[in-house]
Amino acid sequence: MFQVLIDSLIRAAELSFLAVGLTMVYSVLRFPNFAHVEFATVGAYMALLFSATLTLPLWLAAAVGLVLTGILGVVIDRAIFSRLRRASPIMLMIASFALGIAMRETVRAIWGPSPFFYNIGLQRPMEVMGARITSIQIAIIGAAVVAMAGFHLLLNRTRLGIAMRAAADNSQLAQSSGIYTENVIRTVWFIGAAFAALGGVLIALNTQLAPDMGFGIIIQVFAAAILGGVGNPYGALLGAVIIGLAENVGLAINWAPLAEFLGLSTSGYLFIPTGYKAAIPFTVLILVLLFMPSGLTGARR
Amino acid sequence: MTDFLIYLATMVGIWGILSLSLNLQYGVTGLVNLGHIVFFMLGAYISTIMVVLAGWPIFLGMAAGVVAAAAFGALMALPTSNLQQDYWAISTLAAAEIVRLVFLNTQLGGPYSGAAFGMSGIPRPLRAYFTSGSYDLFYMVMVLTVLAICLALCWWVLATPFGRTIKALREGDHVPLALGKRIATFRIRSMALGGGIGGLAGALFAHYNAFISPQYFLPLETFIVWAMVILGGAGNFVGVIVGTVIIQSIYNSTRFLKDFVPIDQALLGSLRMILIAVLIILVILYMPKGLIPERRRRYERPPAAQG
Amino acid sequence: MNGHPLLKVEDVHVHFGGIAALAGVNLSVPEGLIYGLIGPNGSGKTTLFNVITGFIRPDRGHVTFAGRRLDGLSPDAVARAGVCRTFQSHRQPVTMTVMENMLLAAPMQSGESLFRAATRFAAVRGEERGNLERAYEILDMVMLGDKANEYAGSLSGGQKKLLSLAQALMNGPRMILLDEPVAGVNPRLIEDIAAIIRKLCHGGQNFLVVEHNMKVIRSLCDQVSVLDAGHIIAEGEPEEVLGRQDVLEAYLARSGTEARPDAVRQE
Ligand SMILES: Nc1ncnc2c1ncn2[C@@H]1O[C@H](COP(=O)(O)OP(=O)(O)OP(=O)(O)O)[C@@H](O)[C@H]1O
Ligand SMILES: [Mg+2]
Fold first, then answer.
1. What is the pTM of this model?
2. Options 3.20.20.70, 1.20.1510.10, 3.30.70.260, 3.40.50.300; which CATH number does C1-82+173-267 get?
3. What is d(CA C177, CA C45) in angstroms, rounded to the nearest whole number?
4. Ligand 1 atom 29: the closest Cα is on which residue?
5. Which of A68, A246, B241, C159 could form a disulfide with C155 if both were Cys (CB 3.0 to 4.6 A apart)?
6. Which residues of chain B have a Cβ shorter than 8 Å from any chain C Cβ?
7. Ligand 1, residues C16, C55, C212, C254: which to mutate, most atoms within 8 A of Cβ?
8. Residue whose CA lies nearest to ligand 1 atom number 3
9. Beta-bridge partners for C151
């Protein structure tokens, strides 16, 4: 069971980087950015480019990739979304969907469809309280904690942070009182994209690089952000933990007692097949939307 | 070349039907369905299951596919009144993926036993009456005829008081509610109707392609349908068919180009998607109403109201 | 008038978060007249409209219309019960034409069922024709007859107000609730709108009108109620009510410039 907890934590760390960025862009620009997860893909591949081709050390390559992805976010806002500030959220959604495809397919066109790995050698897992965990995985959780602490400081010590929290408290007011200058919007894009890129690098470290690595977790990321209440970065963090747990615990649990309680006959064992792992966050998302549309923290509506 | 054109026309017919159905839901009713491919998938799978596994006649199987897709459409419409538009859109994406996961993980029987291997050996209707050369031509004519019937149906729906009411819903609930419209039932019926038409497209596809697999019904395919509607002009049924012709020509050009251009197939596949995606972004930026914007319906003054 | 009020609002309370938007509102609107509802900005007039028409559930209290309970009904059910409201801001579908907006408003159209539209083709067609004639009559009356095939989005602010009134008429309710029917409309058109409402009232149409323009309230309304911070503070004939010191003070306290009753008196 401890293993399940560790796996959930790793998953939560990965998702949190994307969910936090998504929730910020969502609350400031008022549309769900379907291209957001692609920043993770782009960031991860940029780190690959700089570490493999230019033979930079991986941490430096990742840092460069992070900054470049952040800049890409700003450029994309300038080129596309800044022209659509007055358009309906539907158009923004569709434009972001198209943008996501363009980004993903560009990655696929450049690097091809087969997966890549960072050159970090074989990771030998160690035993901690009966669970197997690699040093990379510990680093992932550590990085998440450090980055979130930094983010917390940013939210509480800077002008952007004040604007962000105003968004979470009362988006209408923040918008009408003009807290969202273009400058704030740019910063949000930069941080959102860079955070996603960091998440992408971590996912690639833990598993592999593939053109679909970002889009493959889009529902998980949205579920985490909405669960936490759109506009609330801490909520998104919490949402990521819950989705991470739901995915891993959901598979580890023997559902037979529940099924029998509901009057179904089982052979004493009833596990969710691993093929349905992806369906868990989807179902959580739909249930949350149906019964708790403002999320756990009630940030919106 | 002729073979390619027949194939392209058949694809335009099938996807045209699908874009009509999205246009009914989004272009007319304003429902941002990002899981539209689910109707195509249900139409294809349910028809295949009924025909291949349950031994139903093909056209009856297709009808079952239509009904299943329509029912799922109605189901998707249920939460529309409680959810914000953007949240509903996200949940449609999730709903379509859940259905796909079910087909991906379920052993269905048949030669490849369903699941990730897909379903093959799907029979083609009236195949025995044609030579292999003329059958594709027949299927093209059949599909285009169905497209024409669906277009006429959509036009007729739009001209009815029902069509007028769903069109009003696209700009918000307040006015229709204040005028006494039962908006939930209108949305449900619009989703069911669009779902059924989408299911028909799926059934036609399955029995043409003779093989289906979960890989055919990715969220990417939903985007293709959206691209056809946005490019052609949301709200205009002829427009979305024009959009279908353009997008399908780009999409299927790789099939044609591979004989002439010595680039890798996978690369070509990526390039065509980039082209479509960029095209849609440009349309949204510079031509948000599409190539053929919605036309207004004129109501001339009747003789009795002269004055 | 048979003594029973047509619309009765009893002890209605509505809270938004910690703020009480309506704090025990009572209102009795008799049949056959134009009833005014006035009050400074933010006093709860629109909220009361929302409660009556089912857009907001009151925390407490009842709404009765023609002997039938309205509270708890959905907005569309309220409309079908004979109460049709307009909105303070323009909400008509702007990508539909004026005539489409009008035909939309016709009540109980059998063609709203696709099944009947397909099976009872001739009947639905006849109904459409009848509605079209009626819509043109109403549009002519509100001076929008030659705008029938224009997009609603292309109308001026005043014309949009007229369209919402025309839509409400087309809906054929027993009572129409107008939320600021002349706000932002040019003075010439204000006169016309007031004249139309008066004429309709003579024809037997019941109105409940929210309006800040006191000149219009004076000339139009048979009776008014004054809402202030969620309470009804006065009711009676317009001349009498608008002359009362406490009503004046309520307006002055909120310093709504355009909304001061004395601003009109000085004209
Ligand atoms: N949906 C809402 N959520 C929160 N507060 C609201 C909401 N609707 C209205 N209010 C508040 O309730 C109070 C009454 O508002 P209402 O719109 O009913 O006023 P009104 O009398 O129509 O004002 P006006 O003359 O400006 O139209 C105001 O303080 C307003 O801010
Ligand atoms: Mg108001």
1. 0.91
2. 3.40.50.300
3. 11
4. C42
5. C159
6. 157, 160-162, 164-165, 167-168, 170-172, 174-183, 186, 189, 193, 235, 294, 296-299, 301-302, 304-305, 307
7. C16
8. C16
9. C97
